[in-house]
Amino acid sequence: MKITNIEHIGIAVKNVKEAINFYENILGLKCYATEVVEDQNVKTAFFKLGQTKIELLETTEPDGPVGKFIEKKGEGIHHIAFAVKDIEQSIRDAESQGIKLINNTPHPGAEGFEIVFLHPKSTGGVLIELCEKK
Ligand code: CMX
Predict the structure, then answer these.
(1) pLDDT over 90, % of the chain
(2) How much of the chain is in helix, strand and coil states, percent to nearest 5?
(3) How many whole angstroms from 126 Cα to the centroid of ligand 1?
(4) For the chain, does the N or the C end have fewer beta carbons within 10 angstroms?
(5) What is the pLDDT of residue 5?
């Protein structure tokens, strides 16, 4: 697969609105967008730092992936998203090497990206998102 950059780092928070205060007032970053991603059961907020973004994630459903993560581990870094050149090829490449994918067709993510996740059990404990904006 061809990764071009770290697109974003996903951080699970209990309350996006409260977390935005910290990122804006303490770290001096600017939240430039918020978006609900129905398919992932999350409310997101984005901050840009050069080529990379911080994505805050609040669950919209207690049993959504971020809700379950916070229940088990608490708030914190949830995933790293790599931008790839060809997401379908990246899926085939990962599968052909025995990597477990959580979904093997691209799903709609925030900001118009198509996304897939590699299971943390196949990656050394890190939930990895591959994403591409077509
Ligand atoms: N990072 C690292 N490890 C994680 C993890 C995460 N974010 N979430 C779960 N795990 C680990 C668990 O700790 C567990 O490990 P152990 O068996 O050693 O305890 C293992 O993965 C399986 O966890 P689980 O509780 O049985 O499985 P879940 O039902 O919680 O599902 C996962 C985990 C990764 C499959 C699920 O969260 C998922 O499908 N994620 C992809 C979708 C997603 O995260 N969407 C939200 C972001 C959307 C966006 O950015 O737009």
Answers:
(1) 98
(2) 30, 40, 30
(3) 9
(4) C
(5) 97
Q: Which residue in the block uniquely carries the two structure tokens 């805050």?
A: 56
Q: Using a 6 Å cutoff on CB, does residue 87 contact ligand 1?
A: no
> Closest ligand 1 atom to the C-alpha of 66?
46
pTM over 0.90: yes
Instruction: Report which ligand 1 atom has the smallest distance to the Cα of 8.
Output: 50
| Cα→Cα distances 40→24, 51, 66, 87, 126, Å | 25, 24, 9, 18, 18
Q: Ligand 1, residues 69, 116, 123, 130: which to mutate, most atoms within 8 A of Cβ?
A: 69
